[in-house]
Each structure stands twice: as structure tokens, then as C-alpha cells.
Amino acid sequence: MKTKIMLTFDSEYTAKPLTYRLIKEYNLVINILKADIGYNNIGHILYEIEGDEAMIKKTLTDLNEPGIHLEMVEAIIAVDRSRCTDCGLCTAVCFPDALAVTGPDWELTYNSDKCTGCDLCLPVCPSKAISKASLL
Which of 72, 83, 98, 127 has a Cα-to-Cα distance from 28 of 20 to 30 A? Predict the structure, then answer.
């Protein structure tokens, strides 16, 4: 199974090896897509993880302890179809091709499986139709 998870943790965990625990204790293959960590600050890490489905579910249960919040992420960005003009500007900066404008209808499509959370698409959208999805 391959999925994305968001790990949010209190400042007391900034010096602890949380990623190491995911790899060593749960035998998961980890790809860090995005991280915002400062010493003595709340941290956020977006992972793409791969492993046995039972181990991923066990991870979500075991690591949700006081000071740590871990959850699966379905989408990293949201596209407001009522505001989107299908201009395609966002596709030019979307290197993993999560955003695409393809025929026959030439409408913007979003593939959350490909999205890495880089957020490059957010500032280029002239109609502000792309926003960060609510993760928490």
C-alpha cells in the first residue's frame, strides 16, 4: 500500500527520531515530500509512505499519542471548480504532473496520488481557484 500521511508534533519531539521510528519499527519506505521543522517549534512533515497496509494502520494508531498527531492525507490541494478557468498556468509549474489539462473537454484535472505538496501551483493561479486542502 502507498499513501500520504501528515505528521504534526509538539516542540518536545523536534530532537527525537520520528522518521527513523517509522522506518525501523514499522518497516515502512519513507519519502519526505515536505517538512517544516524548527528547533523548539511545532513541526509538520508530509510523508509518502509505502508498506504493508496493516503496518500503516498500526503506525497511525501507535504514534497518535499526546504531542503527536498522525493522519492519512487524501488531497494536498483543493481546486475550486467554480473559480477555475482551465487556463492551465498551474500545469506549467506542476513537475509531478498532478495537475493537467487534457482533451477532449480541456478541463483541469487533479491527481492527488501524484501531488508532492510543493505548493508551486498556489501563487500562479490567476483566479485563486487552488488552495491548500484542510489536512487537520
Answer: 98
